[in-house]
Design goal:
heterodimer, A: Dipeptide-binding Protein, domain 3, 11-stranded mixed β-sheet
């Protein structure tokens, strides 16, 4: 946090000074080209059809929501002049409606006017049941979205919605142009290649060339609402490669100006930064590296029913096993090896914002091999002659999968060694990140399918409200062949008490009470050891020293303020 | 030279004796054989001498430098070699950059989580060399079989050669990726993760590298088939399998041996590139390619981590190529003795 504030303060001052002095004189596109590298390439520019951060980030340069979040988690306006609240009458007193009023004179990049019809269209586009919208959870509880007049949109919820800023707040739910996407409703959505690869937006940039899974070329949007922005005339958004190569290209060779998500060993990053070409930024959001335990049987013998709730896992359903796995992990050492200053030990899957951080799970930071062994002994898992525990012929043999990434492979090796000390045999598997997170229905290696006993990755949520995030572990969110393996409930955790807490949170407005419920849900997941948190990760990015205006934002996309980026002299 | 020939003539001469005496004159091939022998010995018996467990994580010893970094310590060089632990830091004020962490317990250093590089290198060599040898044998058998059949039996020639063309046209790396994705799980369940992947990789490399052997063998068989001694054998009613076994095989030994040696090199490189891409064996299972891949991130901190596995791959491939070169000269009766 401290580092983030320092950076925020310094850069904030820089931005203020340039914009305040520049607005009157400076024209759009004065700073030429900027190169951005995302080592996972964007494959689509429509966030409604992709859950991937890379796609959401890339499209956020073109498409904008009504409002977003700034680097401190405060809401900022984008296409509206004012955030609706109960105080200013934008949110009704019974919390069932929210009224957004678009700014006047807004234009799409093709020159046509932005109207409330576009917002209504976008809502219908995502809420179409046949469309496979990835951001549907953001529209949870929305009963209707109607245009009151040309600039006013009224969203009605099916009950009191204490946090009505789900739809159209944050870059995952931007406004699409109705005219462009009119023929892309429902099942036709994924087939609209031209629209999905080159959406018309209100953002600071427009797409000039889109090569899927490779490079996107963008140019400044002449119809952008602030004529002096963006400072860059063109952006080259390169995708692919590795985190290592991306960091080097900014910090050591200076080919690129900005590199995203640098999950690299701390000593490597420190050495690179010492070259003096660029700067590292880190900030802590709700990102947690965690182990997701599969409570269902992933055995290949089950064919189409593997990793579905029809078949419980042979030994992961025993809480003693899960607890022992958690106890054997030395979290401070993981932080030291993998993240250094960009990581903190956490015992919660929801460690941030601070009011949601549960105080009830402390103690996980101490590794307890002896305790884990004793626990397994008392649960009847007996050590075999090969050093692997077994009970009733079931051996504690685990397939542990994650994405291909140097730090993750180090974690795997370390954790494997600790687990071998408590009599658990571990086989490691790593899958290319593009496949693992790709969500391809035909691949057996996606993180939703989880054809393994447990998997490791990191996840977070945008915005500051954890309701949708905690909703990931409701019974209805279990990925299965029936729902085309969508949903984020990787452990296949299903507890009516959890769903009840979630429903209660949906009807509660008081922030203290919401925090209590979120903590209760977090504790339920932690104390059943369904999810084993490892490291509270800071987001780490690198920017060239000549690039000004970068404000690392953990609540919205990295590129949330790209309109304000500029080149220093 | 002449004295050698006379000596040989004085004794009973055998084919392999002749080959050896010719082979000895090829200096590159001799050096290659010595180097390859050392590598084979190292990876086979090394782990019995250097008994450190390549899978054990000694986390306190992480990022130890190789002893070779002592050469860059200037005046402290002797002290560094005699008592490496005494030189931990050049400059206590510098934070990360000037740290020198060396120890005789880890002559080639350790990786970022404290695994011994020397032990890993030997363990990785076992896998890499085993993959190379087995894949070579497989491709040799398939290639020779198809080549001889195509060359000797006219009826199957067209069919078999088009089949060979088909395989030649397949792009190997994408094919490997697809096959690994499709069959990894099945084989893993049947044979366990390491053996399963080993079989898969050996099979794939073998199945995608027999084509050159087949073509060369076919060409030689076609030429041999028209020679008088084959004609003579045919005319006294020798069955085809005898002609092939007794008369053709010994005469095509030269190209087969050469493609065998080259095959080892190709197979090691293919396995390395697969591991380098992060595919193939599990991430904690060392092979030379995997060590190289893991080392690239740390190339700035400790270049030794890339140099050692890289050197092992290059030396093996180079020495095997030289041996192949020497064998070709030695096995060719027209060159032999000149």
């Amino acid at each position: 946090m401290k580092m983030k504030h320092l950076i925020t303060g310094a850069l904030g001052a820089a931005v203020l000074s340039t914009t305040a002095f520049g607005a009157a004189h400076e024209a759009q596109g004065r700073d030429g080209n900027a190169n951005i590298i995302y080592w996972q390439a964007a494959s689509i520019l429509n966030p409604y059809l992709s859950g991937g951060t890379k796609d959401v980030d890339a499209s956020s340069m073109i498409l904008e929501p009504l409002a977003g979040y700034d680097e401190n988690g405060n809401m900022v306006t984008k296409l509206v002049d004012e955030i609706p609240t109960v105080g200013n009458g934008g949110v009704s007193a019974d919390l069932t409606t929210i009224t957004w009023k678009l700014s006047e004179g807004l234009l799409w990049s093709d020159g046509s006017a932005v109207t409330s019809a576009d917002v209504v269209f976008t809502a219908n586009y995502c809420m179409d049941e046949t469309g496979g919208c990835q951001q549907l959870i953001k529209f949870g509880g929305v009963e209707s979205v109607v245009a009151v007049d040309d600039l006013t949109v009224l969203i009605t919820f099916d009950g009191p919605k204490p946090f009505p800023y789900g739809p159209f707040v944050g870059s995952t739910t931007p406004v699409l142009q109705a005219a462009q996407f009119a023929n892309c409703m429902g099942a036709a959505a994924p087939t609209c290649t031209e629209q999905n690869f080159g959406p018309i937006g209100t953002g600071p940039f427009i797409v000039t060339e889109f090569r899927a899974n490779d490079t996107i070329t963008l140019a400044a949007n002449e119809n952008y609402r602030d004529p002096s922005k963006p400072a860059f005339a063109t952006i080259t958004f390169k995708g692919g490669g590795s985190a290592d190569a991306a960091a080097r290209s900014v910090l050591e060779t200076g080919e690129f100006d900005y590199a995203w998500n640098l999950q690299l060993a701390p000593e490597i990053l420190a050495d690179m930064e010492a070259k003096g070409l660029g700067t590292l930024h880190s900030a802590f959001g709700p990102l947690v590296e965690r182990l997701m335990i599969n409570l269902t049987n992933p055995s290949a013998d089950l064919g189409d029913e593997r990793s579905t709730v029809a078949h419980p896992h042979p030994f992961m359903t025993d809480i003693a096993v899960r607890q022992a796995l958690s106890m054997a992990v030395d979290r401070p050492l993981l932080v030291e090896i993998g993240y250094g200053k960009a990581g903190k030990v956490t015992c919660n899957v929801l460690p941030s914002p601070a009011i949601y951080d549960s105080p009830n799970n402390a103690g996980c930071e101490v590794q307890d091999i002896a305790g884990a062994n004793a626990l397994l002994d008392s649960a009847g898992w007996e050590m075999g002659s090969d050093g692997v525990r077994a009970k009733d012929g079931v051996r504690l043999s685990i397939l542990y999968q994650t994405s291909t990434n140097a730090v993750r492979q180090d974690f795997q090796a370390l954790i494997k060694q600790w687990w071998s000390e408590i009599g658990v045999e571990t086989e490691l598997k790593n899958i290319d990140a593009a496949v693992f997170f790709g969500g391809d229905q035909s691949s057996p290696d996606t993180f939703q399918k989880l054809f393994a006993d447990l998997e490791m990755y990191a996840n977070n949520f945008d915005g500051t409200d954890p309701e949708a995030y905690m909703g990931s572990w409701a019974c209805s969110e279990i990925p299965s062949p029936e729902n085309a393996w969508l949903g984020q409930n990787m452990p296949r955790f299903c507890d009516p008490a959890y769903d009840a807490l979630l429903a209660e949170m949906g009807g509660t407005a008081d922030i203290e009470e919401r925090a209590r419920l979120a903590i209760a849900m977090n504790d339920m997941l932690m104390q059943t050891y369904t999810i084993i948190p490892l490291v509270h990760r800071g987001n780490v990015v690198a920017s060239a020293n000549t690039l000004e205006g970068v404000l690392l934002n953990v609540w919205d996309t990295d590129l949330w303020n790209i309109a304000d980026w500029s080149r220093s002299e | 030279m002449s004295s050698t020939i006379e000596q040989d003539q004085a004794q009973n001469r055998s084919l392999w004796g002749d080959v050896w005496s010719q082979f000895r004159t090829h200096r590159g091939a001799l050096i290659g054989m010595v180097v390859f022998g050392i590598i084979l010995f190292g990876v086979t018996f090394g782990p019995f001498i250097w008994t450190k467990d390549p899978f054990f994580l000694d986390i306190r010893a992480k990022n130890t430098n190789a002893m070779t970094s002592c050469f860059f310590t200037g005046s402290q060089i002797w002290q560094c070699f005699s008592d490496p632990t005494s030189i931990k830091y050049f400059d206590p004020n510098a934070e990360v950059l000037d740290r020198l962490k060396v120890s005789w317990s880890f002559p080639l250093g350790t990786d970022q989580i404290g695994r011994d590089i020397l032990a890993q290198l030997m363990q990785g060599g076992r896998v890499s060399v085993a993959v190379g040898m087995t894949a070579m044998l497989l491709s040799l058998i398939v290639g020779t079989l198809i080549g001889v059949l195509a060359g000797y039996f006219r009826r199957v020639d067209g069919l078999l050669m088009r089949f060979t063309d088909l395989f030649l046209a397949l792009p190997i790396l994408p094919l490997l990726l697809v096959i690994i994705m499709l069959f990894r799980d099945t084989l893993r369940n049947a044979f366990g993760p390491e053996t399963g992947i080993f079989l898969l990789i050996v099979f794939i490399i073998g199945m995608t590298s027999w084509m050159q052997t087949a073509r060369i063998v076919r060409g030689d068989v076609l030429a041999l088939k028209e020679r008088e001694f084959i004609l003579a054998a045919n005319s006294i009613g020798t069955p085809a399998r005898r002609v092939i076994g007794r008369h053709i095989m010994p005469n095509i030994l030269s190209p087969i041996m050469v493609s065998a040696t080259l095959g080892i090199a190709t197979a090691i490189i293919t396995e390395s590139s697969l591991s380098f891409l992060g595919l193939g064996f599990p991430s904690d299972f060392p092979t030379w390619g995997r060590l190289l891949f893991d080392g690239t991130s740390y190339i700035g901190q400790s270049p030794a981590r890339v140099i050692w596995p890289g050197l092992a791959i290059s030396l093996t491939v180079l020495s095997v190529n030289f041996i192949g070169d020497g064998l070709r000269d030695a096995l060719d009766p027209r060159i032999r003795g000149r």
